[in-house]
């Protein structure tokens, strides 16, 4: 089968099927064999692995995954791509294509059925608008995962790995770092895609922790607290959390907890580490 990482082969497939890119799905297909090799290497795919691929497109990365893994389950939302995938992946008997919306799929069910409940690896080239809900969904549903290796917009990758006090630091940084160790493994310029996106991309690997690095009494409360802390970034924590209707805590309670932690009552959410948020959550709830 023709290697779709070679631009000419991708163009031929798109012409053969008169494929039109759908803006609503944020489709940008990778055409760089070097980047594809780096993704497979970063994900550490072996013949033991069952891989979940989100958004296979025309099957470019799927071909590489099928060569390296024991089994690949590829979930594609765009039904116009299904006949193309059946064609480009016809030589592989270890690939299952599902025409579904990843946000509605029972991923835990797939892991049970395909991998006996053992942790899978997730690999994806994700459109910007849906990156956060997909990643958070995988973590919050406690899908058994070894790692998530994904191509995302460069600034989103930066946001996942930064620490307190930077402008990119926020709820996504904290959530990712609670569940996994983030590491940017490659920066990818726009000319590696058809059509070319307007922004640079990066490949980031999130290696799942066996146990979260902090201990909290209630994970849901922790994340509600973190989200409320960044909903209004410019506000102090006392005001931001005191005004959050879903938390039902008073400004006095917040101020008291911060004082107990030795923090000023004027502190903002962007100054707190994950450990400090965990401590605050445990004190408040």
Task: Give an overview of the whole structure.
This protein has about 280 residues and is of the alpha/beta class. The protein folds into 2 domains: about 5-210, Rossmann fold, CATH 3.40.50.150; about 220-285, Helicase, Ruva Protein, domain 3 (Orthogonal Bundle). About 40% of the residues lie in helices and about 20% in strands. The chain contains 12 helices and 9 strands. The strands form 2 sheets. A 7-stranded mixed β-sheet has the order 4-3-2-5-6-9-7, with helices on both faces. Helix 9 (about 220-230) crosses helix 12 (about 275-285).
List strands and helices in order, with pairings.
Blueprint: H1 7-16, E1 29-30, H2 33-43, E2 50-54, H3 60-68, E3 71-75, H4 82-88, E4 95-98, H5 107-115, E5 120-125, H6 131-140, E6 145-153, H7 154-161, H8 171-179, E7 180-188, E8 193-194, E9 201-208, H9 219-231, H10 237-242, H11 251-260, H12 274-284
Parallel strand pairs: 2-3, 2-5, 3-4, 5-6
Antiparallel strand pairs: 1-8, 6-9, 7-9
Number of strands: 9
Average residue pLDDT: 94
Radius of gyration: 21 Å
CATH architecture of the largest domain: 3-Layer(aba) Sandwich
Question: What overall form do the CA principal axes indicate?
Answer: elongated
What's the number of domains? 2
User: CATH fold name of the largest domain, please?
Assistant: Rossmann fold
- List SSEs in N-to-C order: HEHEHEHEHEHEHHEEEHHHH
Q: Which regions are unreliable across 5 or more consecutive residues at pLDDT < 50?
A: none
Oligomer: single chain
Strand arrangement, major sheet: 4-3-2-5-6-9-7
Percent of residues in helical segments? 25-40%
Question: How many helix segments?
Answer: 12
Strand residue percentage: 15-25%
């Amino acid at each position: 089968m023709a290697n779709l990482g070679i631009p000419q082969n991708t163009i031929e497939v798109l012409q053969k099927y008169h494929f039109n890119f759908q803006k609503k799905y944020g489709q940008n297909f990778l055409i760089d064999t070097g980047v594809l090799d780096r993704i497979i290497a970063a994900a550490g795919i072996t013949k033991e692995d069952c891989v979940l691929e989100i958004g296979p497109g025309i099957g470019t990365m799927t071909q590489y995954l099928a060569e390296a893994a024991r089994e690949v389950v590829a979930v594609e939302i765009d039904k116009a791509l299904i006949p193309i995938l059946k064609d480009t992946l016809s030589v592989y008997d270890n690939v299952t294509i599902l025409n579904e919306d990843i946000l509605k799929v029972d991923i835990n069910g797939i892991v049970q059925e395909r991998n006996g409940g053992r942790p899978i690896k997730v690999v994806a080239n994700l459109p910007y608008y849906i990156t956060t809900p997909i990643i958070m969904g995988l973590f919050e549903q406690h899908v058994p995962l070894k790692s998530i290796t994904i191509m995302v917009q460069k600034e989103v990758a930066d946001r996942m790995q930064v620490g307190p006090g930077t402008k990119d630091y926020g709820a996504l940084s904290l959530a990712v770092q609670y569940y996994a160790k983030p590491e940017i493994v490659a920066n990818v310029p726009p000319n590696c895609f058809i059509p070319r996106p307007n922004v640079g991309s990066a490949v980031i690997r999130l290696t799942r922790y066996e146990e979260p690095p902090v201990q909290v009494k209630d994970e849901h409360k922790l994340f509600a607290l973190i989200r409320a802390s960044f909903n209004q970034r410019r506000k102090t924590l006392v005001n931001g959390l005191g005004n959050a209707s879903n938390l039902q805590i008073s400004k006095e309670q917040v101020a008291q907890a911060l004082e107990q932690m030795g923090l000023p009552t004027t502190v903002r959410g962007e100054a707190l580490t994950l450990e400090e948020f965990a401590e605050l959550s445990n004190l408040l709830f």
